Amino acid sequence: MNSRERILQRLYASQTSAQNPDQTHQATGIQAEHAAGWTQLAQREWLTSFKQNLLDNHAEIIETTTANWARELAQQLTARGVKRLLSGEHEHGKVLLNALVQNAAEQPSAAIDAHIVTTAFSKEELFLTVDAGFSVASAGLAETGSLLLETGPQEPRALSLVPPLNIILLNASAITASFLTLVQAQTLPAQLPTNVLLISGPSKTADIQQTLAYGAHGPKELIVLLLTDA
Predict the structure, then answer these.
(1) Per-residue pLDDT at 149 exceeds 90
(2) How many CB atoms within 10 Å of residue 131?
(3) pTM
(4) Tens digit of pLDDT for each residue in 47-81?
(5) For a FRET experiment, which of 14, 89, 131, 188 has its CA 20 to 30 Å from that of 81?
(6) Are 88 and 26 found together in one domain?
(7) 31 shares its domain with 133
(8) Same domain, residue pair 13 and 125
(9) What is the DSSP letter of 223?
């Protein structure tokens, strides 16, 4: 059962409960059983489900390591013809920029104009001149193949919602069963994020003739760098 089928199953169960109050208890039991089933899976099974759900949603996965991810991404960006990249203000962004500088030294024709996001960048620049945005996810949800981003000054949400190419880094060890298990296991940080985004693939819409189309607005591509040794 893929992520779409699971979501539809829940919607049907909720609709049935609303129409027949006597079945509310039964539906609640089904949801509890479903959640319990996910928590009982081994972490490697979470990883398998997470990757398959992302692929089903037209995302691209690059499995790599903490030592190699930046260099591999630099090569990917060069191959895709990316000319301008914007990164969140975090350590991974600095590592990526260093890798891009090194890559450009070896291949001058492959130079990429890369920057850490600052207030100096206007919305006009973001919408019109930035080819790719680089962010770091704090968690992955196996049940839906979703990436969780905690946004704020150092990780602006527009960075993962506007540029045509959305790149997100995730540690495989940060994958959990579902949003429920994440909330149950996590204590609230001292400083709450501005927003929390759940990203499961590139942008899509079914507004026209109910036909699902990808890349209609926002990111046309999603690359997930999955650090398998972290």
Answers:
(1) yes
(2) 17
(3) 0.79
(4) 999 999 999 999 999 999 999 999 999 999 999 99
(5) 89
(6) no
(7) no
(8) no
(9) E
The pLDDT assigned to 109 comes to 84
Q: Give me the CATH number covering residue 159.
A: 3.40.50.10420
- Of 184, 203, 178, 229, nearest in space to 67 by CA: 229
Task: Quote the DSSP letter at residue 188.
Answer: P
b (16+ CB within 10 A) / e for 179-216 = bbbbeeeeeeeeeebeeebebbbbbbeeeeeeeeeeee
Instruction: Report whether 165 contacts 219 (CB < 8 A).
Output: yes
Token pair recorded at residue 92: 């991974």
Encoding tokens for residue 121?
A: 């960048």
Six token digits for residue 179: 């949003």
Per DSSP, what are the bridge partners of residue 205? 213
Label residue 17 by pLDDT band (50, 70, 90): low
Residue 26 sits in which domain range? 1-40
Same domain, 152 and 165: yes
Tokens linked to 144 = 């839906």
Pairing mode, strands 60-64 and 221-227: parallel
DSSP letters spanning 98-126: HHHHHHHHH-GGG--EEEE--TTS-HHHH
User: How many other C-beta atoms lie within 10 A of the C-beta of residue 159?
Assistant: 23
For 21-43, give the DSSP string: GGGHHHHHHHHHHHHHHHHTS-H
* Residue in this structure with the two tokens 């540029």, named with its chain if needed: 163
* Same domain flag for 100 and 196: yes
* Residue 203 structure tokens: 């942008």
**Pair 187, 159 in one domain:** yes
How many residues are given for the chain?
A: 230
Residues 97 and 138 in one domain: yes
